[in-house]
Each structure stands twice: as C-alpha cells, then as structure tokens.
Amino acid sequence: MNLDPGTIAIIQLAWSRRLGLADDALSAAGDGTRIYSVQDESRSVSFMRLFGREVFCGPEWAARRARGKSAAELSRQTSLAGLSVEYGGRTVGSEHLCFADAFPEPMEPAEELAVSEDPEIAVQLERLCPPDDVAEAGLAGKEALFIVVDDSAEVPVPLAGAGYNIRDGILADISTLTAPSSRRHGLGRYVTSIAVEESMAAGLIPQYRTPLDNIGAARTAAGAGFLAVGIRSEVQLTA
Asked: Could you tell me the superkingdom of the organism this chain comes from (predicted)?
C-alpha cells in the first residue's frame, strides 16, 4: 500500500512550512536532493529525510560539518550530537515519520469498552504509566482525545488512549499511551485507529512519529495503517 500522490504533496507542504522553507521547497526538489536551511540563531540542529528529499537545519557551522555526511549518518542522533559537542548538543531523539491516508481495517476489542474524551481520564491514564512513556506521548495535552475505559465498575478505569494536535492546519499529529496492565491486547492499535478515523473525518492527514528504538510504537502505528516514509533527528544546543 502506498500513499496517494496528492497526500504526499500536502505532507510536503506541511513540513516545508514547519521547517521555515518555501511552500514548494520539498515538492520541487529532485529525489536525493539535500536542502540546507541555515539559521545562525537557531538553538537546535536537525536532519530530516522525507520522500527521498533531505533537509538539514541549523547554524552555518553545523551545515559546514554536515556536508559530505550521508543521510544514514545524519539520521543517527549520536551523529548530530557529535557535530555539536562543543556547543552542548543535547539529544532530543530520532524518529520515523509515519502517515496514513486510508481508513484502518475495522477492529474491535475482545470486550465492549467505552470511549471517553475527558482530559481528566487522560490524566488518570498517565498516572498508571511509566514517566518516560508519559513524556513521549504527551497525551493529556492533546487537542483531541480518545480514551478507552472499562466502565463496568463504579469508577471507570482507563486502559489506553490516543490523541492528536493539529499541525499547520494540515496534519493530525497522533500519539498513543497504554496502561502497562492492558498492553499486548490490541487496545493501543484500536484506540489509535479511532484517532485516525476522527482526524480524517476532520479533513486532516494523520501523522505518527515513532522513536527509532520503540518497537511497540512502530507496531501500533503499522497496525493502525500508518506507513513509515521518513526519518528525523534533532539535538538542542545548550552552549
């Protein structure tokens, strides 16, 4: 399954704007082209490869050091940190950029569950999860929320949640969080599929960013119909 060419063009537009480039910067570039966006006041260095186009963003000194390095090298967060070690380069992370433009295959959990959009339920779910997972998902702060709850008891118990923020009026940036006791039951995929359907119904293109070392997130994204078509790495400059 491939993304529709029209979807690709819209994604390229959204990311061109997010990176401070001309609207057609990515769509007009040839396959394998690398764009250097020099921003001397920038407090970060980043590299992105998306649909065969590459964008390096950062101060002039970082751009000089990046020239001649391969996409594979620059995609590793350790490589970007190495470029900027004397500037206090602090790793933010490396992630796959995943997108979907078709409704996911219908799926239902093994038992009937309710879906809540209450931010307080999202906060309750976060309290059940490891801090690193909570920080990565940022679920409670999402503009749109979908929390699967077991409401068979007097007090509903949150099991898994997904939500999205709208980026550049085009992309629905989705993340998922599942309570440890509810993992490996397909609930993450289920609630992510709900977020995909709702965002598409709102006229948005679903985007899912999965850290390179998070196999569970990659499986959740693939199960909800996302395709990994890009990669992005970033470090923050602290000196």
From this structure: Bacteria
Same domain, 165 and 124: yes
Secondary structure of residue 150 in the 3-state scheme: strand
CB 24 within 8 A of CB 16: yes
- The answer on 162 and 131 residing in a single domain is yes
Among candidate residues 144, 143, 174, 177, the one with its CA nearest the CA of residue 159: 177
Q: Exposure pattern of 9-47 as b/e (b: 16+ CB <10 Å)? A: ebbbbbbbbebebeeebbbebeeeebbeeebeebebbbb
Q: Which single residue is written with the structure tokens 């693939």?
A: 222
Phi, psi (deg, nearest 5) at residue 102: -135, 145
For 81-98, give the DSSP string. HHHTGGGT-EEEEEEEEE
Low-confidence spans in the chain with pLDDT less than 50:
none
CATH number at residue 219: 3.40.630.30
131: in domain: yes
